[in-house]
Amino acid sequence: MDLFEDDAPGQNAPEFTVSELSGAVKRMVEGEFSHIRIRGEIGRVSWPRSGHVYLDLKDDKSVLASVIWKGVASRLPTRPEEGLEVIATGRLTTFPGQSKYQMVIEDMRPAGVGALMAMLEARKKKLEGEGLFDPVRKRPLPYLPEIIGVVTSPSGAVIRDILHRLRDRFPRKVLIWPVAVQGEKCAPEVARAIEGFNRMTPGGAMPRPDVLIVARGGGSIEDLWGFNEEIVARAAAASDIPLISAVGHETDTTLIDFVSDRRAPTPTAAAEIAVPVRTELMYALDDYAARLGRGMSRALDLRGQRLRDLSRALPRPERLVENARQRLDFASERLPSALRRNVDARRLRLSEAAGSLRPGTLRRAIQSEAQRAERLAARLGPAESRLIAARRDALTARAARLRPEALSAELSRQTTELARLTQRLSDAQKRSETQRQERLEASARLLETLSYHRTLDRGYAVVRSDNNVITSAAAAKTAGALEIEFADGRIQIGGAAKPAKKTKDTGPSQGSLF
Question: Transmembrane residues, as ranges (predicted)?
Fold first, then answer.
C-alpha cells in the first residue's frame, strides 16, 4: 500500500497560519468569557515599573495568570498581597506571544471577612517584626497642648463630638485636616494628613500641632479598612508629633491603634485624653494653695516655737555686760593717777633734753646755716645771668622770624575784609529800612481803607447819645439828645447845641451809619 497516495484522508482540511489560529482562539475565548467572577488565592505578585500588576490566581489544583492594568490598580480598594483569598471580576483573554490565556482583572475584593482578617494578621506580624508596635518607641502626650490637630471627616459627628468635649474640658486651638474616612481615598489622604501636620513649622504662620488625633466613628471592618493599610500605619509610626488613634468603637481594632502613641476607645475619649479638665485643675490649684498656706503657717509656728526655746537658753543682757561694766569702773578709778604719772614722766624727759642744749651749740648751727646761704647767694648771680642770656637769645630768634611785610599784608587783607563787611552791613541796614517803610505805608493805606470816615465820605453818618453809639430806632426814641457826625462835622439835635467840628481819623470804630 502506498503511504503517499493523493486521496489520503484529511487532505481537504483548510490551512491556517499561526496568527490566524491565535486570533480565532482569542475571539472565541473573549466571546465566551467576556465577563467572569473568579474566587481564588493570590499567588505570585509582580509590580514592574510600568505600574501594571501581574499575579496568579490559584486553588488546590490549577493556576490562572492574571494582569491588572495601571489605571485599574490605582483604584483598587485592596492592595493585592500573596496568600489573600479574593473574588476577581474581569474578562478572559489570550496572549498569543506565549500561547497562553490570562484574566484581565477589572475589580478585586477580599473573599469575605475571613480573608480580610487573614491579611490583617499578616500585616500585623510584619509590622510587629519591624518593631513598630514596641512600647519603648511610644512617646508621652503633652499635658496641656496649645494646638491640637485632628485628622477626620469635616462633615461627620466625630468632629462635633471632639470640639464639644474640648470646649467642656479645656478649650484649645484645633486644626482640622479634612480626609475621607472610608473608601479607596481614605488611606492615602490620612497618610498625607499626618505627614502634612509633621511638616509644619513650630511657631510659624500655620503653627504645628502639639498632638494629633486620628478619628472616625464606628463601622464594619470594610468601612474601617483604610486605617489598616500599611501606608497609614507607617505614617503614624513616623510621626514626630504624639498621635492618638480614635478609630471606631471600643471593640474595633485597626493597625493604627498599635502604632499610635495612645489609643482611645472613642473619638470623645480621645478629646478627654488630649486635655485635662480645667475645673479640676482650678480645684487642684486651690487645694495646693490652701495646703501651701497651711504648710507655711505650720512652718512659721514651728520656727517661732524653736526661737522661743532657744531664747530661754540664752543669758540675760545684763549678765553679759556685768564683767565689762566692772572692768570699766576699775579702769576709770585708775585713770587719774595714770595721767599724773604720764605727765611727770614727760616733764622729766623734757628737763633732760633741755639740759643738753647750750648757747655755743646754737651759735655754731647759725654760723653753719649762714655760710650755706652765702654759698647759695654766690651761685645765684651767675645762674641768673645765664638765664637772662638764654631768654635774650630766644627772644632774638623769635624776633628774627617776624617780618614786617607779612604783617603789612595781613593788615591790608584784614582792612579790605573790614571794609567789605562794613559795606554789607550798610546795604543790609538800608534794605531793612526800606522794607519797614514799605510795611508802614501799607499799614497806613490799610488803616485809611478800614477807617469809618471813608464810609462817612460816601454819605453815611454816625449817631451818638452821651458818647454812646445809637444802633436802633428804639434807642434813638428814648435818648434825650442826639449827636450826628457827618463827613464834614457833627450836629446836635435836642438839648444844648454844640459846635460842629471835624473829627480826626483815629481808625475804624463801631457806630450807626445811615
Answer: none
**pLDDT per residue over 189-246, tens digit each?**
999 999 999 999 887 788 899 999 999 988 777 778 888 888 999 999 999 999 999 9
The residues near 189 (Cβ < 8 Å, ≥ 6 apart) are: 179, 180
Q: How far apart are CA 252 and CA 263, in angstroms?
A: 11
Q: Which residues of the chain have pLDDT under 50?
A: 1-7, 497-514
User: Is residue 244 in a domain?
Assistant: yes
45 domain-assigned:
yes
CA torsion sign, 391 to 393 to 397 to 399?
positive
At 85, phi and psi to the nearest 5? -85, 125
Q: What is the strand order of the sheet 211-216 is part of?
A: 173-178, 147-152, 211-216, 243-247, 262-263
Dist CA 65 CA 50 (whole Å): 18
CA torsion through residues 460, 464, 467, 472, sign: negative
Task: Determine how β-strand 173-178 pairs with β-strand 147-152.
Answer: parallel
Q: In what order do the strands lie in the sheet with 482-486?
A: 468-469, 462-465, 482-486, 489-493
Which three three-digit cell numbers place residue 212? 494629633
Number of domains in the chain: 3
For residue 332, tell me if it sits in a domain.
no
| 171 phi/psi in degrees, rounded to 5 | -60, 130
Dist. CA 306–CA 328, nearest whole Å: 36
Q: What is the CATH number of the domain that holds 190?
A: 3.40.50.261
Residues 435, 428: Cα–Cα separation, whole Å? 11
CA 169, distance to chain mean position in Å, is 28
Give DSSP secondary structure letters for 439-487: HHHHHHHHHHHH-HHHHHHTT--EEEETTEE--SHHHHHH-S-EEEEET
What CATH number is associated with residue 73? 2.40.50.140
Judgement on whether residues 92 and 210 belong to the same structural domain of the protein? no
Contact 150, 163 (CB under 8 A): no
**Structure-block grid coordinates of residue 433:** 529800612
